Amino acid sequence: MSEAKLFKVGGGQAVRLPKAFRFDGDRVRICWEGDAVILEPAQRTSTEVLAWLKCIQIADFMPDGRDEPAPREREGLASDD
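and the corresponding structure tokens:
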């Protein structure tokens, strides 16, 4: 666990991140997760997005399919028959 210095900038607060925690770019996304503040890069490179997509296991998503009702017949709409 590391510590970072807090300081005021105008009406806001800033954090001076240690070198090991630096981000590329000039923006981060920020959110609360319980009592923790999460920082993550605001933009991902195409290489990072493709690497993430390779990790997704499509076969694991809804393995039993979707439980959907049959389409309803509606008056005034043409049929594909």
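(Above: one complete record from the training split.) Residues 5-59 form one domain.
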